[in-house]
Amino acid sequence: MNKKTTIQVVMVFLIIFISLLFYLKYFNKNSKNLKENIIIKNIDVNQNDTSNYIDNINYISSDTKGNKYQITAEQAEIKIDSPDLMFLKNIIAYIFIKDSDTIKITSDLGEYNTTNYDTAFSKNVIITHPDHKITGEYANFSFLNNLGTITTNVVYIRDKTNLFADRIEMDMITKDTKIFMNDSTKKVLVEGTK
């Protein structure tokens, strides 16, 4: 090979190498801020034309700050026309916030968005955090806004105090919490226990 052909071959390999590096840096899915891992133990064969059902699902996601979110359910229904949403039954979820205590959430029903990780819990919602317990009928957690909202028949229990309210909003990072009634003429009921 002459010198000109050798330079052309080296240039072609250099262009391929640079293109590969560019692809890996900007287009590879592993460079996303959030990683997700789906563990499916058993797929139910009872599928129909509009939904798929998955038994014993365990879904784990994490962000670049080291926070993790795990949600397990006895059954998940995924509708064909909205595959990003899972409708869940008998849920246990954990929010592992870096350098903080774990938050545990249980409920009978729920809806989980696999795109943005937002989760809505309903029916017999129980949220526990060391020394804190909140019960209600509905809870929504937005991970984009780091906001948790609990509504309908809300009871907040801590040490020797029970609070009864219509709504609780909490910042999942700072733990700042607002407890209030939907009707501004009503007041939050605070009850001491022995």
List the helices and strands and how they pair.
Layout: H1 3-26, E1 35-43, E2 51-62, E3 68-79, E4 85-96, E5 103-113, E6 119-129, E7 132-142, E8 147-158, E9 161-171, E10 177-180, E11 189-192
Antiparallel strand pairs: 1-2, 2-3, 3-4, 4-5, 5-6, 6-7, 7-8, 8-9, 9-10, 9-11
Describe the overall structure.
It is built from 1 helix and 11 strands. The protein folds into 2 domains: 1-31; 33-192, Lipopolysaccharide (LPS) transport protein A like domain (lipopolysaccharide transport protein A fold, Sandwich). The protein has one helix at 3-26, and strands spanning 35-43, 51-62, 68-79, 85-96, 103-113, 119-129, 132-142, 147-158, 161-171, 177-180, 189-192. The protein has 194 residues and is mostly beta strands.
CATH topology of the largest domain: the name is lipopolysaccharide transport protein A fold
Estimate percent helicity. Answer: 10-25%
> What is the string of helix and strand elements?
HEEEEEEEEEEE
**What's the CATH C level of the largest domain?**
Mainly Beta
**Which structural class do the helices and strands define?**
mainly beta
Low-confidence stretches: 29-36, 38-45
Specify the CATH homologous superfamily of the largest domain.
Lipopolysaccharide (LPS) transport protein A like domain
The second-level CATH architecture of the largest domain is Sandwich
Characterize the main sheet: 11 strands, antiparallel
- The number of strands is 11
Helix run count = 1
Termini separation comes to: 93 Å
Q: How much of the sequence is in beta strands? A: over 45%
Radius of gyration (CA) equals 24 Å
